[in-house]
Amino acid sequence: MCTMANAWMEGVVVADALDRLFEGLPERLSVDDLTKVLGLADRTVTYRWLRDGIVPAIKLGKSWLILRDDIKEHLRAHYNIPHPTDGDGASPTQQ
């Protein structure tokens, strides 16, 4: 059973992990920085993700403006933390 305290602790763990992942990176990331931090195979995948809006960025002419904190918040918002259940194993949205 997932309590509010457990959910809060999981949120802290997520925040700590993301802070460590982005530690030392500049405020504006290059495509190479983003490729490395996301662990993608190569820049081609990164450019596809940027183009398709999978990760947030702004295209200015032929260049991408990739803000470190936008990427962190996007990842934090999409982190798949288990939702609380009602006791029978089904989440409230599955009823």
TrEMBL record:
One of its GO terms (molecular function) is DNA binding. Pfam families: HTH_17. It comes from the Bacteria. Residues 29-78 form the Helix-turn-helix domain. This is Helix-turn-helix domain-containing protein. The lineage of its organism: Bacteria, Bacillati, Actinomycetota, Actinomycetes, Micrococcales.
